[in-house]
Amino acid sequence: MTLFIIMAEALGRNTKISYENNEIKGVFHAPNCIVMTHHQFVDDIIFIGRAKIEEAINFKKILNLYKTASHQKVNFQKTKLYLLNCFEIIKKQVTRVWNCKVHLFPTRYLGMPLYI
Question: What is the rounded distance in angstroms from the CA atom of residue 39 to the CA atom of residue 37?
C-alpha cells in the first residue's frame, strides 16, 4: 500500500513538473487563479487540460511514465474523455492518442455529479 501511495504522489508531481515546463497548460478560471492540471483521489485521476493534440500526447506521456514505474495498467475501457468547445478533427486526434471514447457532461465522478 505504501508503494502505491508513493507512486500516486509521483504521478501528481510529474503532472506539476510538466506544467512548470510548459508541456501542459491546464485550465484556469480567471486571471490570478490557480491553474488546474489534474485531480487525484486514491486510484482515480482526472487530467484537466486544453483540447490540443500536443497536450493530449503530453498527458499520455505522464501516464505512461507512471505505468512503467508502478507496473500498473490503465483500463481504457473505463477511461472517459470529455472534450469541450473543440472541432471534430481535434476530438478524433485526441481520441486516437488516448484510445478511448468521448463522453458528454453531465457525468458522475466518485458518485458526485459533474456539470459544465
Answer: 7
